[in-house]
Amino acid sequence: MINRKIKVCFFFDDLKIGGSQKLMCDIIELIDKSIFHINIIVLDKNYESNSLYNNLSDYDVKFLNIRGSLNLMRNIMIVYNEISNKDFVISASPDSNLYCAVIKRIFRKISYFICFTHGVDGYYIEDEYYSKVKNNYGFLYTIKERYLLNYFLKYYDRFITVCDSLKIFLTDVRNVNPAIIQTLYLGLIIEKYINIYNEEDSNSLRKSLELSNDDFVIIYSGRLSYAKGLERLIETFYLFKKNKESVKLIILGDGELKDLLISETVKYNLINDCIFLDFNKDYIKYINISNLYLLPSMSESTNLGVQEAMLLKKIVLSSDTGGMAELILDKINGFLFKCGDYNDLLTKMDYIYENRDELDDLKTLSKEEILNRFNLTDNVKILEGILIRQLKGNND
Questions:
Q1: Which domain holds residue 121?
Q2: Which DSSP symbol is given to 293?
């Protein structure tokens, strides 16, 4: 019998806008406050005006300001003092994961630690597919990703993955016991996307971007990195655009490949056909005016941007990597191309363009997929049940 509120601490690296951070914030918003007491700790004190901090302004948020500090034992004790009296600690980012795992190893009888796993850690993606960028990673980063996390993560009490494919990464790379891994499709707060933009809003936004109503708009939204398979995006768009009128590409995001992508638009004389926008909290309005959402990633889980596009009944074309094949059924509720095969990508883009007026049933099924399996309100109730049952078991 539990006759008090269950104390849950959500642990962030930072509050920059990103998939895992947004998902954690949405879970915090939905979790039943009559049952759970929520507090939040963040490693990095710095946050920007377009961060997720405003989403958490109603909660107990503490910035530890220790990220990057090399005084490890001091840092560990600072974190320990914040989480030692909690029933559950939930983390989802590399640095906070490592702190939690080390503390769990040192102080065995402490809070129940849960690691939310949203994707393959960046080092392994770059190392596997783009060895030429290995030098981008410093020695300490390599030690952390390849050795420290591999050793300490197994001390977590439970892992919750957002797709089944991530179980393979955790067991084969991170050496995690499969018995403590559980898949829980999380998803979106559906209510936030109902009638969020009307036709007048969309027309006004298109006009501000100098897009006509006849333009076929392709959008990529997310980090501009090697892991997202973007090196040949502009070249592929150039080949796609041949013999087609009124085709535009929006690239929404920032990252290490931005300069390369911009230079490619000059190389292929596409300056007037490609629109670069910084990622911000209003990114969804740009997805809303698109005709095709494109995700050529080398590694993914169940991408939130894809889920949002499907909910808005946009055609989605993604690589078949990781969890995308769990979310998209090719030619049923979206389209998949073979990961890394840009000829296949181009073929699918051509097919979608030529048949764009005959895909209404596919769009409807894509929305239904999100409503049925990726309704975060329903899935947070499942998470609440996991926490309550675990605490009851500990108290029995």
A1: 6-187+375-395
A2: E
